[in-house]
Amino acid sequence: MEQEFQIKGTTLTIRLPKEIDHHNAEEIRGEADRILQRKLIRVIVFDFRETEFMDSSGIGMIMGRYKNMRFMGGTVIAVHVSERMQRILTMSGIYKLIDIYEDMPEQMKRTGRSR
Q1: pLDDT of 51-66, one tens digit each?
Q2: Which residues neighbour 72 within 8 Å (Cβ) at sequence distance 6 or greater?
Q3: pLDDT 10s digits, 78-110
Q4: In the predicted model, is pLDDT for residue 76 greater than 80?
Q5: Phi and psi torsions of 42, nearest 5°
Q6: What is the CB neighbour count within 10 angstroms for residue 67?
Q7: H or E stretch including 19?
Q8: How many Å apart are CA 10 and CA 42, to the nearest integer?
Q9: Which among 57, 46, 47 has a CA at the least distance from the CA of 21?
Q10: Does the reported pTM lie above 0.70?
Q11: 43-47 and 11-15: which strand pairing?
């Protein structure tokens, strides 16, 4: 599966691929940044449903989108995070910056917005 970008309201959901390496991370970064420049996005949701591997370039890509959203007054969350990915996010320190949910929060399912 390739990454998939979906916009609902002011929420951008990025369904991440099975493996996030340098090549995939650059593609995701580029497309996410293009969308952020064109649309009013307040929340980025990284959906880890299919993801089994992520290297440091994936961590950097998430951190960069977090910094962009923070600058714009938005938020970043992660959903469907496996135990393995949870460990990677914990070791990298990302879990301190973004909220991690088992599934999409209810208020976002209804409105496409967080909080």
Answers
A1: 999 999 999 999 999 9
A2: 36, 41, 42
A3: 999 999 999 999 999 999 999 999 887 766 655
A4: yes
A5: -115, -20
A6: 12
A7: strand 19-20
A8: 5
A9: 57
A10: yes
A11: parallel
**Alpha-carbon distance 96 to 93, whole Å?**
6
Pairing state between β 75-79 and 4-8: unpaired
Q: Which residue has the tokens 């990915």?
A: 85
How far apart are the two ends of the chain, measured CA to CA in Å?
Answer: 30
Q: Which two tokens stand for residue 11?
A: 């929420």
Q: Please report how many Cα atoms fall inside a 13 Å half-sphere around the Cα of residue 89, on the Cβ side.
A: 24
Residue 43: burial class (beta carbons within 10 Å; 0-12, 13-18, 19+): buried
Question: What b/e string do you get for 86-101 counting C-beta neighbours within 10 Å, with b at 16 or more?
Answer: eebbeebebbeebebe
Sole residue written with tokens 């991690």: 100
- Give residue for tokens 């990302």: 94
At residue 107, what is the residue type? Q
Q: What angle, 0 to 180 degrees and rounded to 10, lies between the N-to-C axes of helices 22-38 and 56-71? A: 10
